[in-house]
């Protein structure tokens, strides 16, 4: 009985405490309920924002991916992706790729349309100079290196060397190697010729653009030559080559004819030597006499 009575007393005490608390909280109950509603709404809002933010990020990267679907990046789509997503990594990657495309285009038309090439280089440089300040390390390093390539294409080798010296990260070794090449006299002389060459035709470049590694001699005149003079010089060189080939062919034919004549003469002499021997052969044989009739 004592334990049961004790249990009943404890239950009564708990009930009394709850009743007192409820009475105390009744005036504050609307505020408490409002707080619970706000908390639930906040949780739902955060989840919705996270989902929408993830979807927005996916959409932004989709814009960038669409611009890269073709073999050559679509510069218009890249520009649109950058403009539609300002202040985001997508915008910076789109800008960097757009500038790379401009630099590559400039290298393609460097000799055929110098003014447009210079304009494209300047546009690329403006973007690179902005991106070197990016908080994203990969973007900043890439822009730093590509800025050196742009300066190099402009023929500003000293500035390009200084720019390559600022490169860090994944491009550091490539930049260091490029510095060594630009400091060599043959490369300096080549760039002096390239920047002085007059427009005659399109050229191609190796790598991501900005360095004229492969130049087609059929489309590039020698320094201080007009296009007509260059073509005339090339035609004369080709004629000389054809003449030398014709002379070599004639000499070969004459040589082969002389050999054939010598072989014919030797064959004739051999035949003449064998003829008398054939004629004398019957005379050397003893005639066969018939036995005399007895």
Automatic annotation (TrEMBL):
Superkingdom of source: Bacteria
| Acidic residues: compositionally biased ranges | 241-271
Keyword annotations: Membrane, Transmembrane, Transmembrane helix
Q: Where is this region: Disordered?
A: 241-294
Is Coiled coil found in the keyword set? no
Answer yes or no on keyword Phosphoprotein.
no
Biased composition, Low complexity: where in the chain? 272-286
* Gene3D superfamilies cross-referenced by the UniProt entry: Tetratricopeptide repeat domain
- TM ranges are 31-50
Under what name is this protein listed? Tetratricopeptide repeat-like domain-containing protein
